[in-house]
């Protein structure tokens, strides 16, 4: 292993431990990829794991998020659980497509990228997920 690669790994009992990186973005019509690309090009090494954490504000937060499928009169008539499930599906599809488009930035066989969608306040959700994942790095978008 080169000196550069060793620098990117944490030593624990003489064994290299893969870094766990959480990249947090706010849900919107188009999921921003700047923070993810930065983490892929500046932080991770082969064997590391990135979790793309997409934070959707909780329903009581007062913020409105608009997704193309949910605009208009039909959206207001959908049940809350149905729209939430469809919203998560739309976000997952959008993130998956974005990750597929990044094949020139990283090798999916060497770096594991996961997508996780959470609801809540951005600061609480990101901190909670970073702690749960025992993240070495947390990269925030904006």
Average pLDDT score: 78
Which CATH class?
Answer: Alpha Beta
Main sheet, how many strands, which sense, barrel? 4 strands, parallel
Helix content: 25-40%
Query: What coarse outline follows from CA principal-axis ratios?
Result: globular
Indicate the structural class.
Answer: alpha/beta
Number of strands: 6
Output the CATH homologous superfamily: HUPs
Q: How many domains in all?
A: 1
Major sheet: arrangement of strands: 5-4-3-6
CA-atom Rg in angstroms: 17 Å
- Order of SSEs: HEEEHEHHEHE
Strand percentage lies at: 15-25%
List low-confidence stretches. Answer: 1-14, 63-81
CATH topology-level name? Rossmann fold
Give me the number of helical elements. Answer: 5
N-to-C CA distance? 34 Å
CATH architecture: 3-Layer(aba) Sandwich
Q: What this model shows, in words?
A:
- The protein is α/β, with parallel strands linked by helices and 142 residues long.
- Helices cover 38% and strands 23% of the residues.
- The chain has one domain: Rossmann fold, CATH 3.40.50.620.
- It has helices at 3-8, 34-42, 73-77, 80-101, 122-133; strands at 10-12, 15-17, 20-26, 49-56, 112-119, 137-140.
- It has a four-stranded parallel β-sheet with strand order 5-4-3-6, sandwiched between helices.
- The termini are far apart.
- This is UspA domain-containing protein.
């Amino acid at each position: 292993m080169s000196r550069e690669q060793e620098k990117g790994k944490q030593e624990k009992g003489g064994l290299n431990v893969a870094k766990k990186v959480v990249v947090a973005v706010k849900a919107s019509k188009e999921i921003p990829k700047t923070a993810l690309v930065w983490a892929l090009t500046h932080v991770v090494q082969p064997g590391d794991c990135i979790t793309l954490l997409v934070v959707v504000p909780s329903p009581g937060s007062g913020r409105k998020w608009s997704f193309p499928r949910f605009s208009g009169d039909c959206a207001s008539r959908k049940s809350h659980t149905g729209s939430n499930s469809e919203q998560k599906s739309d976000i997952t599809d959008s993130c998956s497509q974005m990750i597929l488009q990044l094949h020139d930035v990283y090798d999916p066989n060497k770096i594991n990228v996961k997508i996780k969608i959470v609801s809540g306040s951005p600061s609480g959700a990101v901190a909670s997920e970073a702690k749960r994942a025992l993240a070495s790095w947390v990269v925030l978008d904006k």
